[in-house]
């Protein structure tokens, strides 16, 4: 059983994690309510289970990457949820970015079923996940975290253990605060260069190796340069979900985030302009629209 791992949620992240775990020699048993997602798992040699509960009855360690709070509640506490699975001691590595109260409720439901929930959000995009270039922001039971070492190694680049359950989510909120700002800052730099008459390719190539660069500029700058927004690794819709969580978290702490608040509005504008399913790099297109700017087409 040591080489069997479960995956619940076979979207952009879940697919990449499952594929990397298969390549690392794991038997992957997974579930997703979307038939096409299950087909992807089968195509990579994984086994499709009938429910989250069935995944937990086949695998001692389960990875979860879910789109929203309702999906987590259903997956853990629903009629076919993991908390009600036969056996005890299963470990769920919960990788989603979700509100703290929802994760704590899931933690309690798992504990009542004799199982362990780890709070382990991921820092990285879907494109990074393909290359195992993910950072695990882990928290919860330390012994359980240590038992997951081989699974973590199979789907991520580095793992940080941050202490009690919930600390992983706090660090992810902080990380996504920076991502929100840095992505818009990259777009703003591209916009400034283009308005000045410099080709976006020259702007990117020059700044990507300068003191002003950032990981976001290096990752999303090429998409902005090429106006390549329709094959997303993280959508504006997903970013707005995270923004709402960070807004509430900061409000509870009474912590003002003025730079972040200004950057957040560009994502809201992107949604209003019909770009919510595009890559978050499309904030560059939003700024172009705001400026009434049209790129010159190649002759």
SSE diagram, text form:
Layout: E1 4-8, H1 12-23, E2 27-31, H2 35-43, E3 47-48, H3 52-56, E4 61-64, H4 69-77, E5 91-94, H5 100-112, E6 116-119, E7 122-123, H6 126-130, E8 135-138, H7 142-147, H8 149-155, E9 158-161, H9 167-195, H10 200-207, H11 215-226, H12 236-253, H13 258-272, H14 283-290
Parallel strand pairs: 1-2, 1-4, 2-3, 4-5, 5-6, 8-9
Antiparallel strand pairs: 7-8
Helix pairs in contact: 4-5, 9-11, 9-12, 9-13, 9-14, 10-11, 12-13, 13-14
Characterization of this structure:
With 299 residues, this protein is an alpha/beta fold. It is 52% helix and 11% strand. The protein contains 14 helices and nine strands. The protein has helices spanning 12-23, 35-43, 52-56, 69-77, 100-112, 126-130, 142-147, 149-155, 167-195, 200-207, 215-226, 236-253, 258-272, 283-290, and strands at residues 4-8, 27-31, 47-48, 61-64, 91-94, 116-119, 122-123, 135-138, 158-161. It has a six-stranded parallel β-sheet. A three-stranded mixed β-sheet has the order 7-8-9. Helix 4 links the parallel strand 4 and strand 5 (91-94). Helix 4 runs parallel beside helix 5 (100-112). It is globular. The protein starts with a strand and ends in a 9-residue tail after the last helix. The model has no long low-confidence stretch (mean pLDDT 96).
